[in-house]
Amino acid sequence: MSPIHFYFDFISPYGYFASLRVEELAARHGRRVDWRPMLLGVAVMKVMGLKPLLDTPLKGDYIRRDVLRHARRHGIQLGRDPNASVGNPLPAARAFYWVKRHAPGLEVPLAHALFHAFWAEGRDLSTPEAVAAIPLPGGLSSQELVIGAASDEAATLLRNAVAASIKAGIFGSPTIVVDGEPFWGADRLGEVDEWLALGGW
Amino acid sequence: MSPIHFYFDFISPYGYFASLRVEELAARHGRRVDWRPMLLGVAVMKVMGLKPLLDTPLKGDYIRRDVLRHARRHGIQLGRDPNASVGNPLPAARAFYWVKRHAPGLEVPLAHALFHAFWAEGRDLSTPEAVAAIPLPGGLSSQELVIGAASDEAATLLRNAVAASIKAGIFGSPTIVVDGEPFWGADRLGEVDEWLALGGW
Q: Which fold, A4-198?
């Protein structure tokens, strides 16, 4: 069966929450997960014409509260203040696509490591050097990753992935697409589960 | 125990979906529901600086799809095309607050009737006359309601309610507030249920 598509932004807390559950969910239905980091800022700012979530009056305050509430409820360690500045997701996302091309199979362990470093440990990931300095999955070289994440090739791979995500209508993190059917939000994982079990409705 | 606050906009499909379940949910925890219609457009446009949801590229398409999907899943009749123009919620909301003042106890049956007329039957509610022409709960006079919904008093009651909702940080429909804790979205009713059961976390 075709994999489910998992679109996310590394600096999205809801993307992080979903990353902790999506593989178990997919596996229960005999599916694999195709991880597709994107840049929410590009879609939100350039295509949708909206301001960043945390800068939006009323909603920003709610989101900060909701993120902490969700983490408490599910015992998820948060080493980052959701009130702090959101960070730059480009180096992490470029590293992901570079590894997917040059060390296929290691990009998903890397994604978990990046999410953990950023959200659980509160590490900075805003430069290729910072990305390469996190505990990497076995088989990945820090020296190669710092060069790869800074390469033009990685920039092009990410640019193409972001363009494809916008073409696919993706506007939020996480969005899970099951056989063409999109589900937006970490709070929709239960609905994805139902959709997979029932084969749609 | 204090009632839970149910903020919604009559022209919000997710507000309608929540209206079908919120009382049963609250009753299971020995709570009453304080219905608080507001005008999402005022918060969204004037305070948040955003464009209307359905006019937002990418997101608008998703929302239309999600509304139909939710209705199919839960067997909810939708007599209104979510692609159609959204309508004017002012007369319905003004009628609600006027009835709450002048025929207390009938405002919630009226709210159900308004939601049903708009969403299940696809009726127009954009004028006081249209609001008063729907099947009204027993005890409400159509002649009185059309005058009440068009009155300055009703306009003032609604204006005050909207101002209070924005002061309370409400930016989405539905939002349910339990003892000061806000939950945004019809897909969070399960979380409200948990919060009520556990007394928070």
A: Glutaredoxin (3.40.30)
